[in-house]
């Protein structure tokens, strides 16, 4: 059996805080719901990060069509808007969160995106209890190519230890801010040393092709960049093609 794994990456669900400042990273509720419905109708099995990580070592534990739903940055819209839809479909998810911005705003966007509130620690705990696993997106949401090896290790280790201490759970997955994976020969060993089992890029390959297991590098997993115009019937209509 071929095992095709598709990783979807969302950011913000709903409308912008400043209505006239709309960007591609906002997905209206009805479109988000339709995207989830497409996955269900087309028999993609949405799995937890725990099952996904197990599947990296044991491909036969995953379905022929497996999907992982990820949400970058930890915007409050994930807890307020997306979570009820995920629960309606009984779909788990993953939230990649930069620890320095928990309970704050997305100031790392440098005025390129509308200001939005980020989840508080209490909201992150609510996500955890609702089936969305909180994982690492670094500390300061910085591009890895701009960091020294020491700074990269600090981003990896400090974010992991902070999340594990505050949420009382293991953190084993990492998403590179801006999809910038740095130099693989340097970053891979640092991820392994810190105890990460997988790391995710963002929209790196076009056209996107679902990953086939076993993966060649669990620290360079590509993801579909999800926006309001993403047509899953085109992107995932032919898994493995």
Structure description:
The chain is 33% helix and 17% strand. The longest helix has 19 residues, at 149-167. Strands 1, 4, 5, 6, 7, 10 and 11 form a seven-stranded mixed beta sheet that branches. It has helices spanning 29-41, 49-57, 76-89, 121-129, 149-167, 184-194, 232-235; strands at residues 4-10, 12-13, 26-27, 45-46, 65-72, 93-97, 132-136, 173-175, 198-200, 211-212, 224-225. It has a single domain (4-235), classed as Glycoside hydrolase/deacetylase (TIM Barrel, Alpha-Beta Barrel). The chain is of the alpha/beta class. The protein is globular. It is built from seven helices and eleven strands.
Write a concise keyword list for the protein shown above:
about 240 residues; alpha/beta; two-stranded parallel sheet; 7 helices; 11 strands
Question: Could you please say which CATH topology applies here?
Answer: TIM Barrel
Largest sheet: 7 strands, mixed
> Nearest-angstrom radius of gyration?
17 Å
CATH superfamily: Glycoside hydrolase/deacetylase
Which segments are poorly predicted (pLDDT under 50) over 5 or more consecutive residues? Answer: none
What is the number of helices?
7
What's this entry about, in short?
With 241 residues, the protein is α/β, with parallel strands linked by helices. It is 33% helix and 17% strand.
How are the elements arranged and paired?
Blueprint: E1 4-10, E2 12-13, E3 26-27, H1 29-41, E4 45-46, H2 49-57, E5 65-72, H3 76-89, E6 93-97, H4 121-129, E7 132-136, H5 149-167, E8 173-175, H6 184-194, E9 198-200, E10 211-212, E11 224-225, H7 232-235
Parallel strand pairs: 1-5, 1-11, 2-3, 4-5, 5-6, 6-7, 8-9
Antiparallel strand pairs: 1-10
Helix pairs in contact: 1-3, 3-4, 5-6
């Amino acid at each position: 059996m071929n095992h095709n794994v598709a990783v979807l990456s969302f950011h913000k669900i709903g409308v912008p805080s400043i209505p006239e400042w709309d960007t591609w990273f906002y997905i209206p509720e009805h479109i988000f719901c339709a995207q989830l419905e497409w996955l269900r109708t087309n028999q993609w099995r949405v799995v937890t990060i725990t099952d996904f990580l197990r599947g990296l070592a044991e491909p036969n534990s995953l379905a022929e069509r497996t999907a992982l739903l990820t949400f970058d940055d930890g915007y409050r819209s994930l807890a307020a808007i997306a979570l009820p839809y995920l629960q309606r479909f009984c779909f788990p998810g993953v939230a990649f969160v930069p620890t320095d911005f928990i309970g704050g705003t997305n100031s790392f966007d440098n005025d390129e995106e509308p200001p939005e509130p980020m989840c508080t620690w209490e909201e992150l705990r609510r996500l955890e209890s609702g089936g969305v696993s909180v994982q690492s997106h670094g500390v300061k949401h910085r591009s890895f190519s701009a960091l020294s090896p020491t700074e990269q290790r600090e981003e990896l280790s400090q974010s992991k230890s902070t999340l594990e201490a505050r949420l009382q759970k293991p953190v084993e997955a990492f998403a590179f801010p801006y999809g910038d994976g740095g130099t693989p020969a340097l970053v891979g060993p640092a991820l392994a040393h810190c105890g990460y089992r997988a790391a995710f890029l963002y929209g790196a390959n076009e056209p996107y092709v679902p990953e086939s297991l076993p993966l060649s590098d669990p620290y360079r997993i590509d993801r579909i960049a999800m926006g309001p115009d993403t047509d899953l019937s085109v992107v995932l209509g032919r898994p493995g093609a």
